[in-house]
Amino acid sequence: MNWISNVVRPRIRSFLTTKREVPDNLWIKCPDSGQMVFHKDLEANQFVVPGSNYHMRMSSADRFRTTFDDGVFTPVPLPDVAADPLKFRDGRRYVDRLKDAKAKTELSDAVLVGEGFIDGAPVVMAAQDFQFMGGSLGMAAGEAVIAGMLRAVERNTPFILFAASGGARMQEGILSLMQMPRTTIAVQRLRDAGLPYVVVLTDPTTGGVTASYAMLGDVHIAEPGALICFAGPRVIEQTIREQLPEGFQRAEYLLEHGMIDMVVHRHDMRETLGRLCRLLGPAVEGEDAHDDEVPLLESPDAGSQGEGATAEGAAAIVAAAAAQDAEAVVDAADALVETAKEVVESVSVNGTPDASQAGSDDGVTGDGADKTAEAAEKPKAEQTSLFNALGLGGSTWKSDEPAAADTDKTPVTKPSSDAKPRGSKASAKE
User: Fold this and answer.
1) Which of 67, 100, 338, 356 has the most CB atoms at less than 10 Å from its CB?
2) Phi/psi of residue 322, nearest 5 degrees
């Protein structure tokens, strides 16, 4: 009887009835409201719970599918790294954990890098997958982020990063911490190239990732309700032994205190990123950035404002011509000032006449007479303008030369009133 009850009857029952197993992930429960959502509906809504608007965590493949135009992208080749450099082992071997994570996510590591278009703008994008060992930062993840940034510099495109990580990977020790300064240097390469670096902070972004490249972007965007911190709230509460305010270290709290730039709903993320890339990204490709047909420093008389010249080129030409004209005016003014000084010195220093030449027109002798004669040959209008320019017209000018010494044996007589030079020191003594 036991054989019939335990073997025959179960076999007959299995032939007559078929038992269908329900998958565990067929219905997903919202962590915020407890609402049950069918997984197909949740995926169609970009993993946002319809009722509570709660943003569930997304895989890197789903990020790329919903962000790139038509979900099409080209993977960026990543360098190979040592799988287990420290031969780490805790409860399990590190290589076994890596195998399970790769089989679960179908990724080589926690970061996926690809290039494509967002609203027609070329971009290079990287996304961390929290399902791969908590999106932890290891050697392979650091190399992936650096490779993506260098690819953006090579292609002259913006770089976008979706951050989701629990911090550095403890199984790689100091080697994982070394990725923090290395990725920081890669961010500086983007800055030197003048390319925008946009960071999207998702739930959660914590630890060494927050302390390095995740908070070094030009624009920081966060999803609603995302946890963004270095140390978690529980650790802080246990350290300071105080109750933290509600919503502490969440995206809205950080936006209110100026830590991030904006909080964007996931349905509006693609449009926001496309607008930022068009606004901050390079206007033209690298090889077309300079047009040799547009003259920049030629004179307007050279025909540079023809059909090939743009408004900016014409403005540059006019500015250059104006600068050259101003420089020429300054040089001419300097030359006129020097000439005026020579004329004034000749009149004031050598302007004391002798008795024998008291009735002469110039009232000077020797070298002073030659200089005065040369000055007299210039048009009277030019001499008048020079004196006016120097502020000497109608004023008494005093020479900086010392007065004649008493050892001068040449007798000085008072010249006639019509021949006495203006401003001479001899006339002042008389």
Assistant:
1) 67
2) -65, -40
DSSP 309-335: --HHHHHHHHHHHHHHHHHHHHHHHHH
Residues 6+ away with beta carbon under 8 Å from 430:
414
Give the residue ranges of the chain where pLDDT is below 50. 284-310, 352-366, 368-369, 379, 386-387, 394-401, 403-430
Q: How far is CA 390 from the centre of its chain?
A: 50
pLDDT, tens digit (0-9, with 9 covering 90-100), for 65-84: 999 999 999 999 999 999 89
Looking at the DSSP bridge assignments, the partners of residue 228 are 205
Which pLDDT belongs to residue 322? Answer: 63
Tell me which amino acid residue 238 is: Q
Contacts with 206 (C-beta within 8 Å, 6 or more apart), sequence order? 165, 166, 167, 227, 228, 229, 230, 231, 232
pTM of the predicted protein model: 0.62
3-state DSSP assignment of residue 220: strand
3-state secondary structure the chain: CHHHHHHHHHHHHHHHCCCCCCCCCCEEECCCCCCEEEHHHHHHCCCECCCCCCECCCCHHHHHHHHCHHHCEEECCCCCCCCCCCCCECCCEHHHHHHHHHHHHCCCCCEEEEEEEECCEEEEEEEECCCCHHHCECHHHHHHHHHHHHHHHHHCCCEEEEEEECCECHHHCHHHHCHHHHHHHHHHHHHHCCCCEEEEEEEEECHHHHCCHHHCCCEEEECCCCEECCCCHHHHHHHHCCCCCCCCCEHHHHHHCCCCCEECCHHHHHHHHHHHHHHHCCCCCHHHCCCCCCCCCCCHHHCCCCCCCCHHHHHHHHHHHHHHHHHHHHHHHHHHHHHHHHHHHHHHHCCCCCCCCCCCCCCCCHHHHHHHHHHHCCCHHHHHHHHHHCCCCCCCCCCCCCCCCCCCCCCCCCCCCCCCCCCCHHHHHC
Q: Where are the alpha helices (DSSP H) in 281-414?
A: 311-349, 366-376, 380-389
